[in-house]
Design a protein that fits this description.
256 residues, 12 helices, globular
């Protein structure tokens, strides 16, 4: 149902604030911002592309915040950044090549998948933390392939992408969480940035929504640290999971 004019922008801004806070503290912000765009009556493909571009500055800022850790891992990044570039472009192209009606049918299941990934975050983190893979050429090739697939998914949809990256890096043997988080933020910014450029060039961005959502995300990102001191990441992740489940079943129930 189309939202009342004015109220839809207020809801989108609020969704951006929530997404900014969640991405700064725990991740999973797309599970809030994207469904709000759909509930406001936006075209699913334009909403997905606009959401990716609007939240991209947050990933870039997070990567800059971890620049020391990033500078310490040049060899790893030399092999993974190209995978993020190729995957982001491929995922963006795949999204725009998907008919709107077909993508609309996929959306509830994509949201459900991302919700399941977020719900399994602690399991994936423990698994990655306990695994110390030998950093051989074979493992490096496998990691490149995993990153490529995750980035294609990220360019296409994106929710849960960072969690999958953290798990893959841990299984590869990057045991320090700050290093994993630094690499994840840089690769996420690369994937979303390239996909976003592709969306802009293709005219797939709804700029009014993007500006409102992006402004909310900036506010939310700045509030993330303060909120994080009062709420645990489990609480914020719980909110995202609830929103994801509600979004999945509401979209399944009311889709045309």
């Amino acid at each position: 149902m189309q939202a009342v004019f004015g109220l839809d922008y207020l809801a989108i801004f609020a969704g951006g604030v929530c997404a900014g806070i969640m991405n700064a503290v725990a991740g999973g912000g797309t599970l809030v911002s994207f469904p709000i765009l759909l509930w406001a009556g936006r075209d699913p493909i334009l909403a997905n592309a606009t959401n990716a571009l609007a939240l991209w500055p947050g990933s870039l800022a997070a990567a800059w915040g971890f620049r020391r850790e990033i500078a310490a891992l040049p060899r790893l990044l030399k092999s993974l950044v190209p995978a993020a570039v190729l995957g982001g472009l491929a995922g963006g192209a795949l999204l725009l090549a998907t008919p709107t009606k077909l993508f609309s049918g996929f959306v509830p299941y994509l949201i459900l998948f991302a919700t399941a990934v977020l719900a399994a975050k602690s399991v994936l983190t423990r698994l990655a933390g306990k695994t110390s893979a030998e950093r051989s050429t074979r493992h490096a090739v496998l990691l490149f392939g995993a990153q490529l697939l995750v980035s294609v998914y990220g360019g296409y949809f994106g929710a849960g992408m960072g969690i999958l990256m953290l798990a893959a890096l841990g299984l590869y043997g990057v045991s320090d969480f700050h290093e994993r988080n630094a690499v994840k933020n840089l690769l996420s910014a690369t994937t979303n940035g390239l996909a976003g450029i592709f969306f802009v060039c293709a005219g797939a961005i709804r700029w009014d929504d993007g500006l409102v959502l992006g402004a909310g995300a900036v506010v939310g990102g700045s509030l993330g640290a303060a909120v994080g001191r009062r709420l645990s990441d489990r609480v914020l992740e719980g909110v995202a999971i609830v929103v994801g489940v509600v979004a999945t079943f509401s979209l399944l129930a009311f889709r045309k």
